[in-house]
Q: What sequence folds into this?
């Protein structure tokens, strides 16, 4: 069994003391001392408020923090929460911390949490981001209830986002996963989600842990597993999602963690996704709140330059990835002035599909393929900004819906290039 | 011969709660009586208990199962005569069994001559023996206890055309303890029984003796004055006699009933009981350790009285709303099982007749600090009948054998005061004393063994307690200590096997001797002491340095 060597003796001893649980709250951390305490308190408040009867444990999988994060997790006293919220827990609430590795590795953190969920026979396992400073006690309920009470296997969040936030999600991950796997899960790569014990156990036994990309992309792989398998999924409206500032390196890392994994998943799942046409909505729970947040400022010129430079500099690579017509179209787009810039939805969908097919064929190093997609994504993100600059949140959603329609419409093209590309 | 009333006898006692009506019928009228009870004293002695608590046996209209007394100095004719009582008392004492009688001091029946006189006219000398008013507006801050039946604590008396105060049923008017004559008369009642030789009283509903406007009319300082006055007289004239308080209150509110050792000798620990059931189903020691942490120290001469079940509903007054909801959902999903703020069920059905859970709960009852009370029939795992009204479902005939009426009575079954339990699981043909006496591994035999071990040491009754806090919250661990004797008690509240590591370094060098099998466990060293425990298993260890 994978968990036999995964868990330290000390962690195992702590798990023995915890015993069987109903709900496991997983907190993957690395140097989150600044934000972890309010997150923990909110989780505790959520437990007291919504799950006073259930057996709950908080498992902190830490990637070698040097700022005292694990100590803050284990020392957060629930007594303060009782006093503040005037609610009372019937049960003991354990907070357990373990260092899974000396350096952070999201996949290993998730694996540790899932192994704990498996050993403790948790009925529901919810993962919460340690930097979710906007978390509210009700998040826990919204994520866990569908699993715990309604037999769903996976609950993905729907956040209230800034106007142009989540460009990668809206322009690539969501449309692609939706077109491929036929399920309309808005956040296939989320930092908060809940899964059933069944899915946790099945995913833990998955062979993905032998792959390199599992170290970083396990979360989206989990979503894909749920979408591709016979698991019941739903979505839950949460609230505002605080977005940490991201640099250019973060985008590349995010692409590797998500797009790379998504492309890789296509290999083994071909019999499944190739038979799927169109998409179906998944049940969505809770009330959607109005998007009222102000958009972040974006340097459009710089985005355009990064796109154009990428198209020019990576042309030799693109020749082995893209069809001549697509490459030619990209070069035309790259020559446009920023104010006239437009990377149309159909061209973008074709681009992504051709990249996916090339990834499958490994025409060049798979990692280089993912890296090469980064400047093109910037171009698409710029179009997204320009198209939606004056639009309302609702109109933006319509625009995303339209893009998804293009991905679904062009799915036969993916099958075509998947089979044909040499 | 009355037993010598040694001071503090109650601290090491094990009490067996009996209702005369339910125990044994000697004359075939379908109702238990004192002669019948006397005939069964050998059984009580064999069980190993050291005291009997008798529920009210006084003349009464029996509208509240005898808690509505109409004569404090006599025996209800259903149960025999005063002479029968004396014979029973002597027989019990001959066997070393003490007898505690119930004193329902807060109120009488509305058929008591005192009340009949009191209501007869506003000028009657007994008028001031009860609490009368022209309106029903006084003492508005007072809660209603029997919320299922009573709308107010005041009842209109059409005879004297005024309202009288009652904390329980409206046919149970409260006595007025502001009246010295009432206090004097109640002392005379106590003296009457103490002179006959009884060893103590269980005083019913003591928090409610005195009323004051603007208060909850519970636990008032004046009530404590009344108690201190009675206690002083008991100590002076009948040293060694014991007073036990029935005060369903939070631990902090219970503490004053011990005073400085000059009020009650004992008081029921009401909040602990539901939390034992809660801890068991939650598989978490938290409810138990928390309430024990809230339990104040009491004077050395005083003692808590612990119980799992009794003649009343499993009261949920001393729990939070969330705890009450949990208890209802877990233990009384069928609303027929609920009564007032409680659950009217016996021990075995509450625990799904799970022998392991019954043993664990009894093990905790006998090892937590206090004097344990066993409700009649629970030692054989008797069931209940939730379809009988009020609390009668837990007051069905004692099941002595698989024969006619379960050996309780030779009367026609239709004549019994209550139908016996007949169902295939708990009925007298399946659950009875005779068959269990013949089986070494029956619940009855096990209970005898448990009681025997409990009585083998004064640690359980008088020792200190210290809780250990192993990381495994399903394990409830405490150390009982008295003088040089130290016992380690480890309870697995879980339905699954558990491993637990105990920090016993302070007992380094001791070996553990398991008290039921007398087996030796490894010596305590510096490392955590690892125990593995089966589902609902518990250990009592005696620590020995050898």
A:
């Amino acid at each position: 069994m994978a968990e036999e060597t995964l868990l330290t003796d000390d962690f195992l001893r702590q798990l023995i003391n915890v015993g069987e649980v109903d709900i496991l709250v997983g907190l993957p951390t690395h140097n989150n001392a600044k934000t972890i305490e309010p997150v923990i308190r909110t989780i505790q408040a959520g437990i007291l408020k919504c799950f006073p009867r259930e057996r709950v444990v908080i498992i902190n999988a830490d990637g070698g923090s040097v700022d005292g994060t694990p100590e803050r997790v284990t020392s957060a006293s629930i007594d303060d929460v009782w006093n503040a919220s005037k609610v009372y827990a019937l049960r003991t609430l354990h907070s357990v911390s373990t260092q899974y590795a000396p350096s952070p590795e999201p996949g290993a953190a998730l694996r540790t949490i899932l192994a704990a969920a498996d050993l403790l026979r948790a009925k529901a396992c919810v993962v919460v981001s340690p930097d979710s400073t906007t978390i509210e006690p009700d998040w826990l309920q919204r994520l866990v209830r569908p699993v715990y009470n309604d037999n769903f296997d996976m609950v993905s969040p729907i956040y209230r986002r800034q106007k142009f936030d989540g460009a990668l999600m809206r322009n690539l991950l969501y449309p692609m996963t939706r077109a491929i796997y036929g399920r309309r899960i808005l956040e296939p790569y989320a930092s908060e989600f809940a899964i059933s014990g069944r899915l946790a156990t099945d995913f833990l036994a998955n062979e993905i842990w032998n792959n390199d990309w599992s170290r970083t992309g396990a979360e989206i792989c989990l979503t894909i597993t749920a979408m591709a398998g016979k698991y019941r999924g739903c979505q839950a409206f949460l609230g505002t999602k605080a977005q940490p500032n991201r640099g250019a390196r973060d985008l590349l890392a995010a692409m590797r963690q998500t797009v790379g994994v998504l492309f890789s998943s296509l290999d083994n799942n071909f019999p499944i996704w190739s038979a799927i046409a169109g998409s179906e909505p998944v049940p969505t729970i809770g009330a959607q709140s109005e998007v009222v947040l102000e958009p972040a400022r974006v340097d459009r010129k710089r985005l355009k330059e990064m796109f154009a430079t990428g198209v020019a500099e990576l042309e030799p690579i693109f020749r082995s990835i893209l069809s001549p017509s697509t490459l030619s179209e990209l070069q035309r787009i790259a020559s446009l002035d920023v104010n006239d810039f437009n990377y149309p939805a159909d061209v973008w969908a074709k681009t992504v599909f051709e990249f996916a097919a090339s990834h499958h064929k490994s025409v060049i190093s798979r990692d280089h393929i993912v890296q090469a997609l980064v400047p093109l994504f910037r171009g698409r993100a710029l179009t997204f900004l320009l198209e939606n600059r004056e639009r309302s949140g609702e109109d933006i959603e319509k625009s995303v819906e339209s893009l998804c329609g293009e991905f679904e419409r062009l799915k036969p093209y993916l099958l075509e290039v998947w089979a044909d590309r040499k | 011969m009355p037993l010598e009333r040694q001071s503090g006898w109650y601290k090491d006692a094990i009490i067996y709660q009996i209702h005369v009506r339910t125990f044994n019928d000697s004359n075939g009228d379908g109702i238990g009586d004192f002669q019948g009870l006397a005939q069964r004293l050998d059984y009580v002695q064999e069980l190993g208990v050291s005291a009997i608590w008798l529920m009210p046996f006084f003349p009464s209209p029996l509208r509240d199962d005898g808690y509505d007394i109409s004569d404090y100095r006599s025996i209800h004719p259903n149960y025999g005569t005063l002479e029968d009582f004396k014979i029973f008392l002597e027989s019990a004492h001959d066997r070393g069994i003490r007898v505690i009688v119930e004193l329902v001091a807060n109120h009488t029946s509305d058929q008591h001559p005192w009340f009949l006189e009191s209501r007869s006219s506003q000028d009657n000398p007994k008028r001031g023996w009860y609490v009368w008013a022209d309106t029903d507006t006084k003492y508005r801050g007072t809660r209603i206890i029997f919320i299922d039946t009573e709308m107010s604590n005041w009842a209109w008396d059409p005879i004297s055309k005024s309202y009288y105060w009652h904390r329980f049923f409206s046919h149970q008017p409260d006595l007025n303890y502001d009246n010295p004559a009432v206090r004097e008369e109640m002392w005379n009642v106590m003296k009457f029984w103490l002179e006959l030789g009884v060893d103590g009283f269980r005083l019913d509903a003591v928090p409610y003796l005195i009323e004051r406007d603007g208060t909850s009319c519970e636990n008032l300082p004046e009530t404590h004055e009344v108690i201190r006055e009675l206690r002083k007289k008991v100590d002076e004239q009948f040293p060694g006699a014991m007073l036990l308080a029935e005060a369903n209150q939070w631990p902090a509110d219970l503490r004053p009933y011990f005073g400085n050792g000059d009020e009650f000798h004992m008081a029921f620990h009401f909040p602990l009981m539901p939390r034992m059931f809660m801890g068991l189903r939650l598989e978490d020691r938290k409810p138990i350790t928390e309430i024990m942490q809230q339990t104040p120290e009491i004077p050395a001469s005083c003692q808590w009285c612990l119980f799992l079940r009794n003649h009343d509903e499993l009261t949920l007054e001393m729990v939070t709303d969330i705890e009450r909801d949990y208890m209802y959902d877990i233990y009384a999903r069928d609303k027929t099982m609920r009564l007032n703020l409680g659950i009217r069920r016996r021990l075995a059905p509450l625990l799904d007749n799970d022998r392991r859970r019954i043993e664990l709960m009894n093990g905790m009852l006998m090892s937590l600090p206090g004097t344990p009370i066993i409700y009649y029939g629970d030692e054989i795992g008797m069931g209940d009948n939730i379809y009988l009204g009020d609390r009668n479902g837990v007051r069905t005939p004692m099941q002595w054998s698989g024969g006619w009426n379960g050996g309780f009575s030779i009367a026609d079954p239709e004549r019994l005061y209550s139908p016996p339990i007949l169902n295939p699981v708990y009925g007298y043909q399946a659950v009875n004393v005779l068959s269990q006496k013949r089986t070494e591994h029956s619940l009855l035999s096990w209970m005898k063994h448990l009681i025997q071990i409990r009585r083998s040491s004064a640690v359980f009754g008088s020792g200190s307690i210290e809780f250990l806090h192993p990381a495994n919250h399903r394990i409830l661990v405490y150390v009982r200590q008295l003088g040089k004797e130290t016992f380690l008690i480890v309870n697995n509240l879980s339905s699954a096997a558990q491993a637990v590591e105990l920090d016993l370094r302070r007992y380094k060098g001791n070996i553990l001797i398991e008290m039921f099998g007398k087996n030796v466990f490894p010596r305590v060293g510096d490392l955590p002491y690892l125990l593995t425990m089966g589902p609902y298993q518990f250990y009592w260890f005696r620590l020995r340095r050898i």
